[in-house]
Amino acid sequence: MAVISEIKRRSPSKGDLAVGLDPTVLATEYAAGGAACLSVLTDVDFFGGSVDDLVAARRACALPVLRKDFTVSARDVCDARIMGADCVLLIAAALDDAELQAFVGLARELGIDALVEVHDEPELDRALRAGADLVGVNQRDLVTFEVDTDRAVRMAPLIPAGVVRVAESGITGPDDAVVLADAGYHAVLVGEHLVTSGDPRAAVAALWAAPATVDPSPEG
Fold first, then answer.
1. Domain range holding 90?
2. 42-55: per-residue pLDDT in tens?
3. Which pTM does this prediction carry?
4. Among residues 5, 6, 11, 39, which one is catalytic?
5. Disulfide check for 95: which of 23, 34, 99, 138 has CB 3.0–4.6 Å away?
6. 68 given a catalytic annotation
7. Neighbour-count burial for 169-207, b at 16+ CB within 10 Å, e otherwise
């Protein structure tokens, strides 16, 4: 189970989480704990993040970095590449079919990955039609902020083989990671749990170690 560890100062649903965090220190701790990737919030208004956070985290370690923000234009995709991100977030609910397909294609042209975030079966269908090969299932409703901890498990069988599956939101510890690995997910994206843990290095290690014996194949 790969762990995408998030540098997250605050959230619209929970408010302040770790507003005074040092992205350099946190990125270093995540890497030492065995994280496979960093996710860095660059949205200022809702998450208190910044481009500076991403640049600092990128310089601190060799891990690839996902730019976590509201990507709504081709320029946003290009900006992610310019600031040093290795992956850009595309939220299916925020884009129409033409935009989704165009941005997936643009990311590939620029040499970065696109994590297409979905919340339900129709959005998953749209993501796959757009050519997504990296799909994140967000268990948090974007309108109510409620978390459905069974959503990722329900949707896992619908994601075809060959598509990297990432579970997002509502992951509070190793037990959740085991359930999601058993459902066939290759990675979990975790923010709140890690930044509030008090020991991010140990918290990351516990997440990837717990389901280490689970086969992350569609049949496993």
1. 2-209
2. 999 999 999 999 99
3. 0.92
4. 6
5. 99
6. yes
7. bbbeebebbbbbbbbbbbbbbbbbbbbebeebbebbbbb
